[in-house]
Amino acid sequence: TINLGAGPSSLPTSVLLEAAQGILDYDGTGMGLVELSHRSKTFQKLMDKTEADVRALLNVPDTHAVLFLQGGGTEQFSATALNLLAAHAVKNPDYFKSNGNKGPPCDYAVTGSWTAKAVKEAARLGATTNVAIDSRKVDGANGKFGSIPPVSEWKLSPVESKPAMLYYCDNETVDGVEFPNPGFPINDLPEDYRKEVPLVADCSSNILSRPIDVAAHAIVFFGAQKNVGPSGTTVAIVRKDLIVDPDQGVPNGGPRIPTTLVYKNMLDNGSLYNTPPMFAIYASGLVFADLLQNKGGVAGATERSEKKASLIYGLIDNSDGVYLPTVRQASARSRMNVTFRISRAGENKPDEALEEAFVKRCAESNIVQVKGHRSVGGIRTSLYNAVTVEETQKLAEVMTSFMEDVKA
Ligand code: PLP
């Protein structure tokens, strides 16, 4: 079965087989992985290797910690804002009082459903949020996500107001919108802003599919369940000098943070402050090792992602209007989540009956989970790392024959 679901998604078969073995008897211990003590030397060895592989794959510098957390990407919507506000309060003890008992601005680039949720959560927690750009509201958007406006159009908070962060999502899974290249928006930010303001990237659905400049970020986080492994762990790569004891910032207007969300607790305890999601970390570790040893690392994944995405978008663009991309800006079309509608040729309007027929046709070829997110509709084929070029070619064959039938 070719699983093109947006997440949880497929894992390489070799990894599943190895994970199954480890579940039964891990490394000759006579115990399954999930039966070990998380405080055992055996598990510590696994944690160390997993962290080392993340560092090697993503070029994580020593200035940054690699934390294995729970709570999913959603919990990081809260944790990123809370921890960076705490860091701000510790580093700027007089800020809150001199700013009329108001915290620093948190800037957000809202380019899809997940950043919309992230900013809503930060505001709910009491952060002073500033939506620097909302791509639903730019000319021609008609209230829909589907572009990434250039940084020159963003209303960033002034550097003098000492923003606590700028938050963006590198790939919006629901809407199929991805930042056009890995250097954007970093390279386009005003230099003083880039130097002073901590940059946060949600890379849940495109991590390890192309290089990312970790050193330029304060936080890069990703849930495992799309491009890595099963759900259950979220990796947060955090600049160490921004990891503080939040209680020290409370008298300065900083937030109180639930214990398990405090990055410092996780850093000080090697991500084992409390019982970790052992299986999710284990299976993710197998994927990291497989990518590193057998699949050419991130460079290999980048090449395959390009091939897969250009194959499907090429087909969409040459479909005489049968396949309609939902993302208006071609350069912002996601390599990971290819979203489109289906129309009768020449009508230029989504036809739900045709879309239903397409889903069925895919299922007949054992291609599953291609229905679009309910908020966008249509079709979404997710081409994460575990989806091979050959599997993508099968999808292309089905799309081609379906298109010919529609045109006939
Ligand atoms: N961020 C992105 C880009 C996502 O795709 C998702 C989940 O689909 C999330 C955040 C939320 O992750 P979780 O479901 O692990 O909380």
List its salient traits.
2 domains, 36% helix, 408 residues, single chain, alpha/beta, Aspartate Aminotransferase, domain 1, seven-stranded mixed beta sheet, three-stranded antiparallel beta sheet, binds pyridoxal-5'-phosphate, globular, 11 helices, Aspartate Aminotransferase, domain 2
Layout of secondary structure:
Blueprint: E1 2-3, H1 13-24, H2 41-58, E2 64-69, H3 72-91, H4 95-98, E3 105-110, H5 113-124, E4 128-134, E5 165-169, E6 171-172, E7 177-178, H6 191-196, E8 199-202, E9 219-223, E10 234-239, H7 263-268, H8 278-294, H9 297-317, E11 323-325, E12 337-342, H10 352-364, E13 367-368, E14 379-382, H11 389-407
Parallel strand pairs: 1-13, 3-4, 3-5, 5-8, 8-9
Antiparallel strand pairs: 2-10, 6-7, 9-10, 11-12, 12-14
Helix pairs in contact: 1-8, 2-8, 3-5, 8-9, 9-11, 10-11
Oligomer: single chain
In CATH, the architecture of the largest domain is: 3-Layer(aba) Sandwich
Could you describe the largest sheet, including whether it forms a barrel? 7 strands, mixed
CATH superfamily of the largest domain: Type I PLP-dependent aspartate aminotransferase-like (Major domain)
Structural class: alpha/beta
Low-confidence regions: none
SSE order: EHHEHHEHEEEEHEEEHHHEEHEEH
What is the total tally of β strands?
14
Q: In one word, what is the shape? A: globular
CATH first level of the largest domain? Alpha Beta
How is the CATH topology of the largest domain named?
Aspartate Aminotransferase, domain 2
Our count of helices gives 11
